[in-house]
Amino acid sequence: MRTPWHALAGGFPETRLLASVAEFTHHRDIDALDHSLVLSLAELVPVNSVTLCKRGESLQQPIESMVVCSRKTEGGFVVDALEPPREGDPVDSIVCAMETLEVVSDITDTGDCRLVIPIQRDSSAIGALMLEANDSLDAVRVMIEGFARIYGNYIALLNESERDKLTGLYNRRSFEQRLRRLLKLSRQRARAAVGGEDERRGRDDDSKIYLAILDIDHFKRINDTYGHVYGDEVILMLAQLMRASFRQSDVLFRFGGEEFVMLIAAENENVAHYALDRFRQFIADHAFPQVGHVTVSIGYARITENDYPEIVLDRADKALYFAKENGRNGVHGYESLAERGQLAPPAALGSIDLF
Fold this sequence. Notes:
This protein has helices spanning 5-8, 14-24, 30-44, 91-100, 141-161, 172-194, 219-226, 228-245, 269-285, 309-325, 334-339, and strands at 49-55, 63-71, 77-82, 104-107, 113-121, 124-133, 208-216, 251-256, 259-266, 287-288, 292-293, 296-303, 331-333. The protein is an alpha+beta fold and 355 residues long. The chain folds into two domains: 5-161, GAF domain (Beta-Lactamase, 2-Layer Sandwich), CATH 3.30.450; 172-339, Reverse transcriptase/Diguanylate cyclase domain (Alpha-Beta Plaits). The chain has a six-stranded antiparallel sheet, with helices on both faces. Helix 2 (14-24) packs antiparallel against helix 3 (30-44). The chain is elongated and about 70 Å long. It starts with a helix and ends in a 16-residue tail after the last helix. The model is unreliable at 1-10, 198-205 and 348-355 (pLDDT under 50).
């Protein structure tokens, strides 16, 4: 016999609640943290599903990602990272909670009770928790709000550890996680397309993702001539110019030293090349304090669903090396160089040790 909701309110043993909090805050990887959070809540509360939504960067993509823990008919749970819908049910309820910073309680199309709680950080929502159950969820609302606050605070600490201290861009540690997540999502989309489940929801679906590596030309000469203080200022200003030049949906990293990495979306290689070359020219025309004019070299490669992080990074690095060996202050794409026979074939999987 199912325990009534009113008996659950305030009726969780403290040891069980503390164990759940300790379990999901044990993780340092954000993907593992997200999976653990939804599973912990599903095990605490008799729900049909628990969904963690991350807020997107635009109105066209209000939800960036979704992790769903569902109860299986034969017992137990299954946790999946799903492609989020862009409109309709339950997007409207989730967006409402994130925009108003208020809890949304409503009924689903199938008659289930739904509770959506925004996850806040710095007076804005970074996402939301959504629970769906057969019965009212009002009795556990306070507890779920507590989990949302803990998650919001904890994710802020993890995000700080993912940022480069000098530039504020994402660091090398976070690059690997994001690239692996992106490749996983690409494979899911490819499988959905093969299965006939790929519904075009907007123009962004046609975009391809390119990985670009940027290197400051003759950076050692800058440090040797002007000192490391001015060298750091060049790196800091370059990062600021990157933020101003690329879209919010493009993800920027400081990979280490004078090297930067970008994940950008473009319809095709020509569009990606134009965006990168426009930034290269912008930097070449910019006057840096004391140092004067600085140039950069950029190599890039397209990311496909069949790639591994080591392989796609190696392709972009080969294109960057070509740019550095052929006059610097240039932009080259791996695919175009390979078609012209100007590059060696990709390295074998496992031959590159990035981390």
